[in-house]
Amino acid sequence: MAILGIDLGTTNSLVGTVDSGFPILLANQEGQRSIPSAVHLPQGDGPAEVGITALRQRALAPERVVTSVKRLMGKRLSEVDPTRHAFPLTADRDGFVRIAIPHRGQESLSPEEISALILKELKTTAETAMGHSVEQAVITVPAYFNDAQRQATKRAGTLAGLAVDRIVNEPTAAALAFGLHRSKERTKIAVYDLGGGTFDISVLEIRDGVFQVLATNGDTFLGGDDIDDVLAQHLWQRFRPNHPPLAAQSAAIQIKFRQASEAAKIALSEQSEYIVRLPFVEGEEHFEHHITREDLEKLALPIIERTRPLCLRALHDAQLQEEQLDEVLLVGGSTRMPLVRRFVTDLFGREANTSQHPDETVAMGATVQSGILSGSLRNMVLLDVTPLSLGIESFGGLMNVIIPRNTTIPAKAGEMFTNAVPDQQSMLVRVLQGEREMARDNWELGKIEVPFDPGPKGSARIGVQFHIDENGILEVLTRNTKTGKDLLLEIQNAAVDVDDHRVEAMISESVDHAFDDMNERVFTEARLKSEELLPAVDQALNLVGDQLAEEERASILDAAARVRRALDGSDAQALKTANNALDEATQELAALLMQKAMEDAS
Ligand code: AMP
Predict the structure, then answer these.
(1) What are the tens digits of pLDDT across the range 45-61?
(2) What is the topology classification, in CATH, of domain 390-512?
(3) Taking each helix axis from N to C terminus, what angle separates 147-159 and 111-130, rounded to the nearest 10 degrees?
């Protein structure tokens, strides 16, 4: 059974399949392997147009042409910048983005429905080329897509009549395409993927045909589109100095300048100068401007520089130095820019490998993966990692990590929890994602109330198990081991209040706050200990305190007072020291208590 490999890109999309043991990309009837991820929804009853024909409509009816819809997948309206899109946006009842273009009786469409139209187009291309129908696909997504975005991608597949067998991270797919031609030695590679809308950096290890992602990092709001934007603004200023910025102009003007900028940028990858020509920009007015590669590079450099800390962090997470890499692989259309190639060579201290077509590598990898799944390619195992830690809130508001960041998936891990307070009737399991020590600073993915029979402190036995499947989708199972009752938490999209471009922010915040966070965690842990210790000491003093020497008793009271004072402050170390001193001071008290217990028992 054939399975398609699909790169559903922000800017362009491609489809491939394995034919006679070879992964190949399929061209449409115009001979194009890559189609723009653009959808035109015409007025009236006409069918939607997809690809280059849709893109052509952009100058005429920009508000009816949807591009970069990938940036809207699984997103709330509050998380996106509507000024980035020339078409109107609205929100559904849960606040998720909808594209407000009335079409064929529908007032608006979801990003999934738009993506489904692109997928359908690719499916038709494949079916025409292969001569039979295909119902299964592997689709790639950026490594930083969260659960809501992965689910939305799967739904888009279903809407297009494709069962999505596997969601694969784009840099992983690229490495797969690359690995196909590699020997069996252990190889460490970095995949630098700069496309139109997203940037991903991944560090992978390939060993005996096994791919393992050691670390990933990236920014889903960084790419060639940003370069087009700054260049467009630069050109606009030359055309209309001292006017409001391009972003404040009509959609038609914005698109003209963006298109001209992209064309200039692409030309300047091959040649050192270029003349931008825009006839009839406004009425009778023409615009002509000479631009050099140097001019473009000056504008683009700050954008490319933004990839540097992300690369360094990925290397750091993978515990590698630049010189330990065997290979640096360039992926994504924007890596065709000479500036990007120089930048990467400089950053990693080595010439990047450009043996693959940078804009086809991901689709090729998806196709390789589809070949592995369908059995038409020799078996290779594919391992992937979690981009952020997953855990639950534990007593005291702490983040209790169950699956740490960069864990190879699929993964399963669990822990046993109990009641911290007597006669508690249930436990709230809050599923969190993030790198911060305190639960409140992480993102809540969902929650579930697990009931149990009330009893003394520590009597409940609740197992919590996390399972991330090969698509990076999370299921949380709770089990009351006394009754054997299981509850399964399905992470609902509406509950995933995660703004994915903040994944990067989350990681850097965790670094920025590392010291304060750790102090707060240590303080909280010490506080929980104090709160156990103090009542226990009071109780013991009541029971056997009269058997202590006056001095001994005074020193215990003194130590307990010190703990109480430290509890009022925020110095974690002081509280820990005070707890330890109280522990020390109560040695004899503990011995007396033990003796009394034994006497009582006999
Ligand atoms: P991708 O998302 O990989 O399809 O890459 C699309 C991005 O690559 C867009 O921003 C394109 O403008 C850019 N791109 C494609 N070809 C070139 C080129 N020759 N030079 C510079 N940028 C390019």
Answers:
(1) 899 999 999 998 987 88
(2) Substrate Binding Domain Of DNAk; Chain A, domain 1 (2.60.34)
(3) 50
